[in-house]
């Protein structure tokens, strides 16, 4: 169990600190005045929230560990997807990570020998969007070093 | 040629009709899928509109917006899971109707009501937007500063659970909007030494990250039983009977349409609030309020008329003042900027043909929604309800990546979008409304520009700070901001007055 108000207040203090440390790098007063006012407002509001978290404490249940693991894995896969585009190229990286996300949502795909079908679905869907964007709409898509 | 006629003529091309039809079908699909919102649909489609002429792009987005709000009724009625937050109230009577085997009747009622609501909102948009734009031209930097403060105060209504956390989210959004080059001083700020951050946070990337990724993560952990669906039954001749039944309820339609339009005009409110207020008022005005919640068509009519009326209403402050009335209007704001269109008087003078063309396109999209909704909507819903989550999840991520890259052809934007997604998930766990962060992201630059430019203007005055408090329009905006800030408190006090306890609380 955790106190969402206290956690939010502490996190916001971290944000305030991060922004405050960078004020010295801004030479012009006119570029500094408004962010300073907002940072101070955020600090005051966070302080009120912190006090409130002690005066009227609230608790929230932690998300189920398995769910949390799934969420963490999904975020890692998403970042991995973008990072791999540079090396594998947009189409190949997308097919790989699209399939991996499908497996994450439904792990039984591996057990039921539906992996090839999943790869096929991913390849067709991404191929269709790839063609629509690059050919029909002339919207450029990310490119990789090895493949496009 | 008259700009209104010119705008209408520009819309009436086969290409635009195709775009609007695709937008209507696409919006309906997204709206019908629980977890996918109208905001997400428009945010994902914005990159598709880059290469289109401005009017075609806006017409497509408008069609998606209108249809997605309506599409939310499908899953609300059939699965008891509102496809969009705007259809929460539709569950109250729509789902009981479906359980009684009257799902099709409820869907038809929702379709007709959505069309009527949409039309009422568009009429208000066409009539009220130009005079409001004429007022907007009188605005100087202090007024723009106060307008943005007024927009930010809406957070107190938006974040119903905790206004304090809402304002914290708003401040966070404003701070994030300041990353990059400052609008007045021209200095590079808060880039953490990363050169890719000098361009600042692209609004659409922030919106995609904050709205889509947390929903995707929620879908990943969703349990299979939550996705259980009901199959609609088919009855012959039901379209005519239900249409007549809906159109008989003129007062309910008009009242709900007006509520939707007014709530839509108020920045930050939107369909999610309008449908509940309309349901509440329909119940209070009904001769048989006890039947509400048991599967009565009046409830579906009220909620669906109101939520579609917010579309036109929500675009009024966006087109005239640059303040989005709803989160989806915020995405359309981004699309307007991408096409070089700045909200305000300029939209009704320099770009009047595009603006009136856009309003007219909404009218066509609403009528298309009627045809699409009645002809293929029911069948489409059955097909969609079978779309597995395992395909839905990676598809949304894939579109999010394309969407955020295509804006500036910059991979840094994609990373920023994902980072915003992770932040969105964390703040959701901490019960901070991501809508408040988005409001801060949008209004931050406007507030800063107004604030700093006012300071520069005030250098000639004996007491510089008085510039913020002495101009008539500024005083009016300060009063409105104060009213908006304390409105939840005022309504709470009003509700506690003797004789008001019996009101239905939603």
Summarize the structure.
The complex is a heterodimer of chains A (148) and B (506). Chain A contains 6 helices and no strands. Chain A has 148 residues and is mainly alpha-helical.
| Oligomer type | heterodimer
Number of strands of chain B: 2
The value of Rg of chain B in angstroms is 22 Å
Question: What class, by secondary structure content of chain A?
Answer: mainly alpha
Tell me the span between the first and last alpha carbons of chain B. 50 Å
Largest interface: A-B, 67 and 62 residues
* Neighbour order of strands in the largest sheet of chain B: 1-2
Explained architecture:
The complex is a heterodimer of chains A (148) and B (506). With 148 residues, chain A is mostly helical. Chain A has helices at 4-20, 29-55, 65-88, 90-105, 108-111, 115-136. The longest helix of chain A is centred in the first third of the chain and has 27 residues, at 29-55. Chain A starts with a helix and ends in a 12-residue tail after the last helix. The termini of chain B are far apart. Chain B has one domain. Chain B has a two-stranded antiparallel sheet. Chain B is globular, with a radius of gyration of 22 Å. Chain B has helices spanning 3-11, 14-32, 38-45, 54-78, 88-99, 103-136, 141-153, 155-158, 163-177, 203-220, 238-248, 250-265, 271-285, 297-321, 327-338, 345-349, 352-384, 389-408, 411-429, 434-457, 467-470, 472-495; strands spanning 180-181, 188-189. With 506 residues, chain B is mainly α. In chain B, a hairpin with a 6-residue loop joins strand 1 and strand 2 (188-189). In chain B, helix 2 packs across helix 17 and helix 3 packs across helix 10. Classes of the chains: A mainly alpha (148), B mainly alpha (506). The interface between A and B is large, with 67 and 62 residues.
Provide key terms for this protein.
heterodimer; A: 148 residues; mainly alpha; 2 domains; 6 helices; flat; B: 506 residues; two-stranded antiparallel ribbon; 22 helices; globular; disordered C terminus
């Amino acid at each position: 169990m955790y106190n969402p108000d206290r956690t939010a207040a502490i996190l916001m203090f971290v944000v305030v600190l991060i922004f405050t440390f960078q004020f010295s790098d801004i030479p012009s007063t006119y570029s500094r005045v408004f962010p300073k006012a907002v940072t101070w407002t955020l600090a005051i509001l966070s302080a009120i929230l912190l006090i409130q978290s002690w005066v009227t404490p609230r608790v929230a249940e932690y998300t189920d560990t398995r769910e949390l693991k799934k969420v963490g894995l999904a975020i890692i896969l998403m970042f991995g997807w973008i990072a791999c585009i540079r090396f594998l190229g947009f189409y190949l990286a997308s097919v790989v990570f699209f399939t991996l996300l499908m497996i994450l949502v439904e792990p039984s795909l591996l057990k039921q020998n539906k992996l090839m079908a999943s790869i096929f679905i991913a390849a067709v869907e991404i191929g269709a969007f790839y063609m629509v964007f690059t050919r029909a709409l002339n919207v450029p898509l990310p490119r990789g070093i090895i493949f496009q | 040629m008259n700009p209104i006629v010119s705008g209408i003529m520009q819309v009436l091309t086969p290409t635009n009709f195709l775009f609007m039809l695709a937008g209507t079908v696409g919006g309906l699909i997204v709206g019908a899928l629980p977890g996918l919102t109208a905001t997400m649909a428009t945010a994902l489609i914005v990159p598709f509109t880059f290469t289109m002429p401005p009017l075609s792009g806006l017409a497509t987005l408008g069609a998606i917006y209108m249809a997605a709000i309506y599409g939310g009724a499908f899953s609300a009625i059939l699965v008891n899971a509102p496809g969009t937050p705007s259809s929460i109230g539709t569950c109250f009577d729509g789902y009981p109707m479906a359980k009684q085997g009257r799902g099709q009747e409820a869907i038809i009622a929702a379709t007709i009501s959505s069309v009527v609501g949409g039309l009422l909102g568009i009429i208000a948009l066409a009539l009220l937007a130009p005079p409001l734009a004429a007022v907007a031209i009188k605005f100087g930097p202090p007024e723009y500063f106060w307008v943005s403060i007024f927009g930010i105060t809406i957070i107190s209504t938006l974040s119903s659970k905790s206004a304090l956390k809402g304002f914290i989210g708003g401040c966070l959004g404003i701070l994030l909007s300041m990353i990059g080059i400052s609008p007045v001083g021209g200095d590079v700020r808060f880039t953490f030494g990363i050169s890719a951050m000098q361009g600042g946070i692209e609004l659409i990337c922030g919106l995609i990250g904050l709205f889509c990724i947390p929903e995707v993560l929620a879908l990943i952990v969703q349990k299979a039983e939550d996705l259980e669906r009901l199959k609609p039954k088919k009855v012959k001749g039901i379209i005519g009977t239900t249409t007549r039944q809906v159109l008989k309820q003129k007062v309910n339609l008009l009242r709900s349409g007006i509520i939707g339009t007014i709530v839509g005009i108020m920045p930050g409110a939107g369909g999610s609030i309008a449908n509940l207020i309309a349901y509440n008022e329909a119940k209070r005005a009904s001769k048989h309020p006890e039947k509400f919640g048991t599967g009565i068509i009046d409830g579906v009519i009220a909620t669906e008329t109101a939520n579609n009326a917010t579309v036109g209403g929500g675009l009024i402050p966006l087109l005239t003042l640059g303040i989005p009335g709803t989160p989806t209007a915020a995405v359309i704001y981004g699309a307007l900027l991408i096409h070089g269109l700045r909200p305000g008087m300029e939209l009704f003078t320099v770009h009047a043909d595009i603006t009136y063309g856009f309003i007219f396109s909404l009218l066509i999209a609403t009528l298309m929604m009627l045809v699409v909704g009645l002809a293929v909507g029911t069948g489409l819903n059955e097909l969609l309800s079978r779309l597995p989550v395992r395909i839905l999840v990676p598809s949304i991520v894939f579109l999010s990546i394309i969407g955020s890259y295509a804006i500036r052809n910059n991979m840094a934007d994609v990373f920023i979008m994902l980072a915003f997604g992770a932040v969105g998930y964390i703040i959701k766990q901490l019960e901070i409304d991501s809508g408040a962060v988005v409001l801060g992201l949008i209004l931050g630059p406007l507030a800063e520009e107004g604030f700093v430019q006012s300071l520069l203007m005030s250098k000639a005055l004996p007491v510089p700070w008085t510039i913020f408090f002495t101009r008539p329009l500024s005083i009016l905006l300060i009063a409105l901001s104060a009213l908006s800030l304390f409105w939840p408190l005022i309504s709470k006090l009003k509700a506690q007055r003797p004789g008001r306890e019996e009101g239905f609380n939603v």
